[in-house]
Amino acid sequence: MAEITRKELILALIGIHEEYRPRLSGVDLSGLDLSYLNLSSADLGAANLAGASLVGTNLNDAFLGGANLEGADLRDAYLRSAQLRNANLKNADFTGARLTGAVFQGCDVEGAKLPEAFKQLA
């Protein structure tokens, strides 16, 4: 996996026109503070977000299939219509997250702070 810093990510996002999807598939973002960034419609498939802070981050319509979000902090994040199929959500905190239309099929939700209705969909 390629590694990237928060500064490099923000600089890359600044240069992306709104109509394009940020492509961060397979990137190692583990442990980074990505709080309050706009990653809507981003391709984060198979990205390593273990232990990352995604508090208040906009991940609406994002693709997170196969991503590693173990221990990630997603409190108050926006995940409307996000695709999280087969993601590792162990011990992730989704307290206060907006999850309408999010897909959790095949996810590992052991120890995750996630509404029961979504745990049953995993």
Q: How would you describe this structure to a colleague?
A:
By secondary structure, the chain is low in regular secondary structure. It has a single domain, classed as Pectate Lyase C-like (3 Solenoid). The protein contains 2 helices and 2 strands. The chain has helices spanning 6-14, 116-119, and strands spanning 2-3, 27-28. Helix 1 links the parallel strand 1 (2-3) and strand 2.
Structure at a glance:
This protein has helices at residues 6-14, 116-119; strands spanning 2-3, 27-28. With 122 residues, it is low in regular secondary structure.
Instruction: Specify the CATH homologous superfamily.
Output: E3 ubiquitin-protein ligase SopA
Helix content, binned percent: 10-25%
How many β strands by DSSP?
A: 2
Give the CA-based shape: globular
The largest pleated sheet is described as: 2 strands, parallel
Write the layout of secondary structure elements.
Elements lengths: L1 E2 L2 H9 L12 E2 L87 H4 L3
Parallel strand pairs: 1-2
Keywords:
single chain, 122 residues, little secondary structure, Pectate Lyase C-like, two-stranded parallel ribbon, 2 helices, 2 strands, 11% helix
